[in-house]
Each structure stands twice: as structure tokens, then as C-alpha cells.
Design a protein that fits this description.
Shape: globular
Number of strands: 10
Number of helices: 12
Structural class: alpha/beta
Distance between the termini: 54 Å
Bound molecules: 3-hydroxybutanoyl-coenzyme A
CATH class of the largest domain: Alpha Beta
Number of domains: 2
Order of helices and strands: EHEHHEHEHEHEEHEHHHHHEE
Largest sheet: 8 strands, mixed
Length: 293
């Protein structure tokens, strides 16, 4: 089966990035969100990121126009999924919201349509089970910022067919990403490693091992990471990290995945990182200022 038309559910950070790369690869894309203002914001981000590429001479004005011309915004979920070949979901990580959305999508999408979730941790098998097509349900995990990061983790649920895996691999490669195939497990491959690593950096800050900026510098220069772990924590969102840590403890029944108390306190304070203007750094000034704990 050839994928031609894709619905992306969610116009947020991940959703607009996914819509961007799919449209740039030549797919027709409908980006859906629950309010017009979210769609407008997502479209503005796509435009800004395409123009960034234009300024650097990586793409032409014709490519920018053609990419934007392939993306439409839409609010009505039924209308969005009624004639697409693939649905990629990037809505908030709330289990009930995901399950309710998938039930509705399954009811209105054509029989051949493949359903893919960009979840960073929720069980693919659990979501697939609320649909009548678990063999066509799969995980398709992109990384932030989507236009830059080169990987898609493909996650096979209990009932996912090999044919579905092959189709998703083809789409991922067409949008310029390398793929790894992962059997379903909490956090898949990348977050299984990333989240405990970031948590360990936060434990170290909590214990006074180093300052925020020194811990970041140590890992950036000592391990050649593009961002230090605390900058990356702010980039991903502390709320997301806490959610994943709690989910790991629940699923693995192993306290080694527990979140540091400092992370929980910061989330309770609303200091969830860049999107809130404050996390391990304060973003209110000209350049990020490290916080003291
Ligand atoms: N959208 C599109 N392009 C972007 C971008 C964005 N939001 N941010 C940066 N870029 C592009 C720039 O245009 C530039 O392109 P060029 O090389 O062609 O000139 C390139 O990326 C590098 O950008 P900058 O020079 O501005 O900045 P940096 O060199 O500091 O790179 C970064 C920025 C790419 C974000 C880099 O710091 C990085 O790779 N950080 C780590 C990101 C990471 O680990 N992401 C994964 C998070 S985990 C996740 O998503 C999983 C989830 O489930 C938790």
C-alpha cells in the first residue's frame, strides 16, 4: 500500500514538526488540533522553520511554497481522518485522551488506514486494543526538534503486523529519518536511557555535586552531547520527564527509575522548562541564567 495522504493529530511542538517533514517529503498533510489558535501557531512555526532553511540556502522558495501548500489545518476529527492513508497522533500524553481519540479515529478512518502514535512512553498495545485494527497500529516516535533530529523509533505492539512495520519504515525513510525497530517496552530504546540519565544529573544537583552550569558543561564537553542534561531537561519539559519517570516505576515495579524530589518540586512550582520560561535555567533575560538550588 502506498501512503499519499497523512493526518497529523496535534499541532504542538511535535505535531507541527511531523507535519512539516511529511509535507516537505511530498505527502499531503492535514494537521488537526482542538482550537484554531493552536493550528495557527503550529503553521507559524512550520513557516518560521522553513524560512530558516531558506535563509541558509538549504531549500528554495519554490520548495517552501510547495511544502506549505501541501499542509491544511482542520478542527473536525471526523473530516480529518475520513480519507487519509496514515494517521500520526501527537496529542498530550494523557492515557484517557489518547484512548478516546483512537476510538473515534478508528470509527471514522477508512479500513486501510494505518494508525501511528508518537507517544514517548504509553503502551502501543493498550492503544491498539481500543481499535478494531490492532494489526495496523504502531508506534512512530520522533525526536524534538523534528526537522533536525535524524531518528524515528518504530515500535511494534503485540499485534502489529510486519506489513505495517514495513510501510512505516518506508514513510520514515522518505521523510529523511533513520529507523530502529523496537519491541514494545516502557520508554522504548531512547527514553529508557535518556530519562534515567537526566534524572541522575538532577540527583547530583540535588546533592550539591556540581552547579547546573558545571554539570551541563561537564557532559557537553566530556561526552560531546549537543546540550547538557539540564538544558536538555528544560528543552524536553520537566513535566514530561516526571511523567515518564513515574510511568517507569509503575510499569517496571522498580524504584531505580524514581524521579528526584527536586524534579517533582519544580514541576509542582510550574518551573517546567523553556516553555514556562523557567526550569533549571531562567529564560526571562537575554540569555538563559542557571538557577541555584
Ligand atoms: N526546527 C528546525 N530547525 C532547527 C530547530 C528547530 N526547532 N532548532 C535548530 N534548528 C536547526 C538550525 O537551523 C541549524 O541548521 P543548520 O545546521 O542547517 O544551520 C541546526 O538545527 C543547528 O541549530 P543551531 O545552530 O541554532 O543550534 P545548535 O547547534 O545548538 O543545535 C539543536 C540545536 C539541534 C537543538 C541541538 O542542540 C541538539 O541536537 N540538541 C539535543 C536535542 C535532543 O536531544 N533532542 C531529543 C530530545 S528527547 C525527545 O525528543 C524524546 C521525547 O520523547 C522526550
Amino acid at each position: 500500500m502506498e501512503i499519499k495522504k497523512i493526518a497529523v493529530l496535534g499541532a504542538g511542538q511535535m505535531g507541527n514538526g511531523i507535519a512539516h517533514v511529511c509535507a516537505q517529503a511530498g505527502y499531503e498533510v492535514i494537521m488537526r488540533d482542538i482550537e484554531q489558535k493552536f493550528i495557527d501557531k503550529g503553521m507559524a512555526t512550520i513557516k518560521k522553520n522553513l524560512e530558516r532553511g531558506l535563509k541558509k540556502g538549504r531549500i528554495t522558495q519554490e520548495e517552501v511554497d510547495a511544502t506549505l501548500g501541501r499542509i491544511t489545518g482542520e478542527l473536525d476529527l471526523k473530516a480529518v481522518v475520513k480519507d487519509v492513508d496514515l494517521v500520526i497522533e501527537a496529542i498530550p500524553e494523557i492515557v484517557k485522551l489518547k484512548l478516546d481519540t483512537w476510538k473515534e479515529v478508528d470509527e471514522h478512518a477508512p479500513e486501510h488506514t494505518i494508525l501511528a502514535s508518537n507517544t514517548s512512553s504509553i503502551s502501543i498495545t493498550q492503544m491498539a486494543a481500543v481499535t478494531k485494527r490492532p494489526e495496523k497500529f504502531i508506534g512512530m516516535h520522533f525526536f524534538n526538534p523534528v526537522p533536525v533530529m535524524g531518528l524515528v523509533e518504530i515500535i511494534k505492539g503485540q499485534a502489529t503486523e510486519d506489513e505495517t512495520v514495513e510501510i512505516i519504515k518506508t514513510v520514515s525513510e522518505k521523510v529523511g529519518k533513520k529507523t530502529v525497530l523496537v519491541n514494545e517496552a516502557p520508554g522504548f530504546a531512547v527514553n529508557r536511557l535518556l530519562v534515567p540519565a537526566i534524572n541522575e544529573a538532577v540527583f547530583a544537583i540535588q546533592e550539591g555535586v556540581a552547579t547546573v552550569e558545571d554539570m551541563d558543561l561537564a557532559i557537553k564537553m566530556g561526552l560531546n552531547w549537543p546540550m547538557g542534561p539540564l538544558t536538555l531537561a528544560d528543552f524536553v519539559g520537566l513535566d514530561t520527564l516526571l511523567y515518564i519517570s513515574d510511568y517507569f516505576v509503575e510499569e517496571f515495579k522498580d524504584s531505580k527509575y524514581r524521579a528526584p524530589a527536586l524534579l517533582r518540586k519544580m514541576v509542582r512550582a510550574g518551573w517546567v522548562g523553556r516553555k514556562a520560561g523557567k526550569g533549571f535555567y531562567d529564560y526571562s533575560g537575554d540569555k538563559p541564567k542557571p538557577m541555584r538550588f
